[in-house]
Please model this.
Amino acid sequence: MGHQIIEKKRFTNKLFKLLEYLEKEWGHKVAANFFAKIKAHLNLLSNQPYIGQLESKKNIRSILITKHNRLYYRVEGSSIEVLNMYDTRMKPKKNKYR
Model:
């Protein structure tokens, strides 16, 4: 049995903004493919929560979704809190999880 996935509001808001951007700039197919990748990674995390790279702060882990997007999460008992998603091309100082 997999862990329960809890998506934090910050992650959900960022995901919707990114999906809107992808659909506007690149089309529905690209946005749908990206959303499918997110859901596949969340399903994988549900079954194998410790596969992500351990970050330096507060037992936070990360997993690469695409070469430009990294998802940050924390394992809390039998649940996984999906905290946020960051663009890998941004300045490292802006990423509070590293």
In short: The chain has two helices and five strands. The two ends are 30 Å apart (CA to CA). The first strand starts at residue 4 and ends at 7.
